[in-house]
Amino acid sequence: MRGMTRRDWTDKLRVYLVTDDRPDHEEVVAIVEQALAGGVTCVQLRRKQEDGGPMLKLAVRLRELASAHGALFIVNDRLDIALLSDADGVHVGQTDLPASLVKSRFPELVVGVSARSVDEAVRAEQDGADYLGVGSVYPTATKGDAVLTGLDVLAACRRAVRIPIVGIGGITVDRAPEVMAAGANGVAVVSAIMSAPDPKAAAAALAQRTSL
């Protein structure tokens, strides 16, 4: 994993920022830069509606920012963009690229997999996933098709697998401690930082609440 030990990059899952689909790249870069300064430890580029060329340019810029702050840089779904931008890893969903194939062909990449049940979590671990994104823990407007899993599923996944778990979906600063208490190694957020009036302060608050 780019010269890092498992413990090194597991620690970097604690405050995990997922970008949104706002069209202004400069705005995305500015928010991510502020968030990294506030304490974000992992950035995932998620752009479901963007062509490859513009997305690659944005990925390179975000990867440089993440590297400068010692944070992980992950690309959602797009293995090509992850490889071309020299990302640390790629995150795939249940209907995206098979984690087993990605991990077997590119063992140096950190591979994350979305899971909504214990069965999906166990299968992902067996397929070679390095970490799980479990949720939606709470109701969220960010992803319209998100399945509500709650804290109970996250806790059950924690008991069933050994790999790190990141809780995702509707997580706020106030909710972060209970997600960590349920067994998560970190919290992934979109609007809690991307839509915050002060992204740096929001990131700092999440960093503080996930360290309790």
UniProtKB/TrEMBL annotation:
Keyword annotations from UniProtKB, A to Z: Magnesium, Metal-binding, Thiamine biosynthesis, Transferase
MF (Gene Ontology): magnesium ion binding; thiamine-phosphate diphosphorylase activity
Pathway in which this enzyme or protein is active: Cofactor biosynthesis; thiamine diphosphate biosynthesis; thiamine phosphate from 4-amino-2-methyl-5-diphosphomethylpyrimidine and 4-methyl-5-(2-phosphoethyl)-thiazole: step 1/1
Cofactor: Mg(2+)
Residues that coordinate or bind 2-[(2R,5Z)-2-carboxy-4-methylthiazol-5(2H)-ylidene]ethyl phosphate: T140, A141, T142, G170, V190, S191
Annotated EC: 2.5.1.3
GO-annotated biological processes: thiamine biosynthetic process; thiamine diphosphate biosynthetic process
Protein name per Swiss-Prot or TrEMBL: Thiamine-phosphate synthase
Name of the encoding gene: thiE
Name of the top EC class for this enzyme: transferase
Family to which this protein belongs: Belongs to the thiamine-phosphate synthase family.
Reaction(s) catalysed (UniProt annotation): 4-methyl-5-(2-phosphooxyethyl)-thiazole + 4-amino-2-methyl-5-(diphosphooxymethyl)pyrimidine + H(+) = thiamine phosphate + diphosphate; 2-(2-carboxy-4-methylthiazol-5-yl)ethyl phosphate + 4-amino-2-methyl-5-(diphosphooxymethyl)pyrimidine + 2 H(+) = thiamine phosphate + CO2 + diphosphate; 2-[(2R,5Z)-2-carboxy-4-methylthiazol-5(2H)-ylidene]ethyl phosphate + 4-amino-2-methyl-5-(diphosphooxymethyl)pyrimidine + 2 H(+) = thiamine phosphate + CO2 + diphosphate
Residue ranges of every copy of the Thiamine phosphate synthase/TenI domain listed in the record: 15-193
Domain of life, source organism: Bacteria
Cofactor note (record): Binds 1 Mg(2+) ion per subunit.
Function of the molecule: Condenses 4-methyl-5-(beta-hydroxyethyl)thiazole monophosphate (THZ-P) and 2-methyl-4-amino-5-hydroxymethyl pyrimidine pyrophosphate (HMP-PP) to form thiamine monophosphate (TMP).
GO cellular component: cytoplasm
UniProt lineage: Bacteria, Bacillati, Bacillota, Bacilli, Bacillales
Binding site for Mg(2+): D77, D96
Residues that hold 4-amino-2-methyl-5-(diphosphooxymethyl)pyrimidine according to the record: Q44, L45, R46, R47, K48, N76, S114, K143
